[in-house]
Write a structure and sequence with these properties.
Length: about 525
């Protein structure tokens, strides 16, 4: 591998770049977020922008989209000087940003979301006919002409919400589309559809900047890559010339020895048992599961298979309408649905923005408020010990922040996820329900989280892990259960599953119960 992080470049020498950013520098106080960064992307090209959480990717894209102004450097769009004063100006110039967290208005219709802020008028009235003709043309290009324009966006699947955001970008005649972790909330079928859409954008000459921590996806969809590390360009070139291991080394500055570290653990007695459990989501299909001490049980399935709903029912956020849930020997039966959150159980939600974190509160409060008992003495809180505990978590979890008092909403998505995981570690419960725990996390941090999970089960904890990333399930779990349409269809030892078998069971709902 090149010691300078330079690889053969596939960009055509005879073409001019659609976008060229040169010497971009941004400081926040004493922190240098970006240090003389250069970036080029060509018409009809997919450029992957990768790096660890906090490497500067979000800051660079905020500058491109007009949300942040650089301290130094310049940009050119199709050869013309590009200095957007705000996001509206960037959008009018043809820069479309599709964020990792959905940026639609849920209670408005598909049509209203698509034209919001870009309404066309005729004689003082909104020209709805013109809008609908353009919208139908865009949806045809995206392969979804049947999508109802009157449907509230809140009723759409995650994939269709993302489709609305892409359609909105195309309606503004976008020349550069930025996709920030576009597959983090998508299932396998929706990912394939997204990649087909990206291929269509490429054919139409749209330049795509693709930000992702899924490096296998980067190799599949991107023509070139650019790696940021600590605010500087660490490497760039054609994706066909590098391996995933090469990209990881550029991102973190070293070779990662083992993505899925194997911990030594012994499976013990049953810790969590579900007997004929019916959930509020689906009361007619009863679920039976057992989680043992010292075990990681994976839950596989397509988006909408009922995995998240099952975790919410286990921990008490949703009703258990029939059957019995037993945790560490205590069974509340049906009456448990009235007792709220379950003792000894903690959930890491897949939706950190609205459910997993209180974005307006500090990093420290998000970590500790769910369990204050260790810091109370004679009715008073030991704030010194609390601060020391938070600082220890910040250091051990590698959270990039200004300190315990910084609002968690100001952190990057990956660092927010680490705060949510630190809260779970602080709760010190026996049963941990992890719903997409590595979503939006960089490669090195994923390996760290896998190591934490391994240490938890070594101590006799039990973990239920929901993930859409099949290699993660196969690499981390002891057993894997597949769900299909709110029903358990197969449970086997992880070593008895192949990726093909898992996907087949998840899509067909067929599999022998073990």
């Amino acid at each position: 591998m090149s010691t300078l992080g330079q690889f053969p470049d596939s960009s055509p020498e005879r073409r001019s770049p659609r976008l060229a950013m040169s010497g971009i520098t941004k400081r926040f106080g004493a922190t240098v977020a970006l240090d003389a960064v250069d970036l080029e992307v060509y018409p009809g090209e997919v450029l992957a922008l990768v790096g660890e959480n906090g490497a500067g990717k979000s800051t660079l894209m905020k500058i491109l989209s007009g949300a942040v102004q650089p301290d130094e450097g310049n940009a050119r769009l199709d050869g013309a000087t590009f200095t957007p004063a705000d996001p509206l100006a960037a959008r009018a110039s043809g820069i479309a940003m599709i964020y990792q967290e959905s940026n639609v208005v849920p209670n408005l219709s598909v049509e209203a979301n698509l034209v919001l802020g870009a309404e066309r008028h005729r004689f003082g009235f909104i020209d709805r006919s013109a809008h609908r003709r353009r919208i139908r043309g865009v949806l045809d290009r995206l392969g979804r002409p049947e999508l109802s324009l009157a449907t509230p966006v809140s009723r759409l699947s995650t994939g269709d919400r993302q489709l609305v955001e892409i359609a909105r970008a195309l309606l503004t005649d976008a020349r550069v589309v930025i996709m920030d972790e576009p597959t983090s909330s998508l299932g396998l079928v929706e990912i394939d559809r997204l990649f087909s859409i990206i291929s269509g954008l490429r054919r139409e000459g749209v330049a795509v900047i693709y930000i992702s921590h899924f490096l296998a996806e980067v190799q599949r969809i991107a023509d070139r890559f650019l790696v940021l590390r600590d605010g500087r360009v660490a490497g760039q070139g054609a994706t066909s010339t590098v391996t995933v291991a090469d990209l990881i080394e550029l991102m973190i500055g070293r070779r990662l020895p083992d993505m899925f570290p194997i911990s030594s653990r012994t499976t013990g007695m049953p810790l969590l048992t579900l007997n004929d459990v019916g959930t509020a989501e689906c009361s007619s299909r009863l679920i039976n599961l057992t989680l043992h001490r010292g075990e990681i049980l994976g839950l596989a399935g397509l988006v909408g298979a009922g995995r998240t709903e099952l975790l919410r029912s286990i921990c008490g956020l949703d009703q258990v309408v029939s059957g019995q849930v037993t945790v560490a020997g205590y069974s509340g039966g049906k009456s448990w649905r009235h007792t709220g959150l379950k003792p000894g159980v903690a959930l890491l939600s897949e939706n950190r923005q609205t459910e997993g974190l209180a974005l307006g509160l500090s990093v420290g409060n998000n970590m500790l408020l769910s369990r204050l008992e260790p810091f109370t003495k004679w009715g008073w809180l030991d704030t010194r010990t609390m601060r020391q505990t938070v600082e220890r978590f910040i250091a051990s979890c590698g959270i990039r922040s200004r300190g315990a008092g910084q609002p968690v909403g100001e952190l990057s998505g990956g660092n927010q996820q680490k705060v949510a995981f630190a809260r779970l570690l602080h709760q010190d419960v026996d049963v941990l329900l992890l719903d997409e725990p590595t979503r939006g996390i960089d490669v090195a941090s994923k390996a760290q989280i896998y190591e934490w999970i391994g240490k938890l089960v070594e101590r006799g904890k039990g973990v239920v892990l929901v993930s859409d990333h099949v290699p993660e399930l196969l690499g981390v779990c002891d057993r894997i259960t597949v769900m299909h349409r709110n029903q358990v269809v197969a449970t086997r030892s992880a070593k008895d599953w192949t990726e093909h078998d898992l996907l087949n069971a998840a899509t067909s709902g067929e599999g022998a119960l073990a």
